[in-house]
Amino acid sequence: MTDRASPPRWAVVGNPENRRVALFAGAVRAAGLPAPRIVPWTDVLRAGGAAFAADEIVRLESPGENTEVDRLLRGTDDPTRVEGGARWYAAFTAAVRTLTGGRRLDDPDELAVLFDKRSCHRTLARAGVPVPQAPTSGGATPPRGWDDVRALMDAHRMPRVFLKPAHGSSASGVVAVETAGGGRIRATTSVESARDGRLYNSLRVRRLTREPEVAALVDALAPDGLHVERWWPKASLDDGAADLRVVVVAGRATHAVVRTSRAPMTNLHLGGRRGDLSAVVRAAGPTAWAEALRICERAAACFPGTLCVGVDLLPAVGWRRFAVAEVNAFGDLLPGLTGLPGSGAEGQDTYAAQVAAASRGSVPHHPTRNDRAPA
Prior knowledge:
Helix content: 25-40%
Radius of gyration: 21 Å
Shape: globular
Oligomer: single chain
């Protein structure tokens, strides 16, 4: 009689009502495995941690889109507020470190880098991954407000920049700034300023053309930390600027979606549109497209303790050069999108691909304190 290994047991730390959790749980069940144990972020934050069995595969899901979790992490009941990113980052990374046991798919130290755009940029640059120039890489010269940002733009000859909150996501707080001769300036953002001075995310992209307005906005964003990045001249598709989200699972680029917009930000919730990926592949040609996927895999390789990341890839005009804008820990929400040809994930969505990879044994090894080499 042959003994059969027990099927993997999954646990997910997430917000139970969130579609991310539902979609992933569905992928686990579709693989013929027992439904995952769901551990709510509210329980983790209120109890000061959670423990997992040694044989549980533990996946972390985004803590977003839950008012109570946002209050515990950010200190506000209003999810549309922009401020509080630094507090959110400190609380979230601390909460991740309270999780014990299990076979983790997300390394706490790597998550701390992934959720700090300045640290992530430095990590990628040191590994030779092409990235836009950023004078704030690694936290160098943190700008205290608009005067510092303007000085950095002048010193580095960057008339066009993206200003990004260091711990932001989904384009929250992002400001695209363009300057020209004669004191002309234009800032594009989805941030709205209330009469009380508080900042809110909006689904409407607006433009500011007076420097005092831009200065007031940047001064309000700066206390949470800003990342200043040279504006990458992106390729166009369908009369709009284009970029790509490429999902990398277990070191391999498995899924990709192209996003286009006439605004600097291509996020779908800000009016961006999904473009035709086959048109991108044709425009790039087989050599450049293969290099684009290799760049994404090199970016993911900087985070070997994290099973899956979403890489935001910027194509240059002409579709022959590429740079990585960001690497996202929770960048796999692409419902219904199946794997790229030749990726090994054909016919699988991003969640099914991760379940399959983990079932094959592609679970990152995270050393315990006793396993880690002395500093």
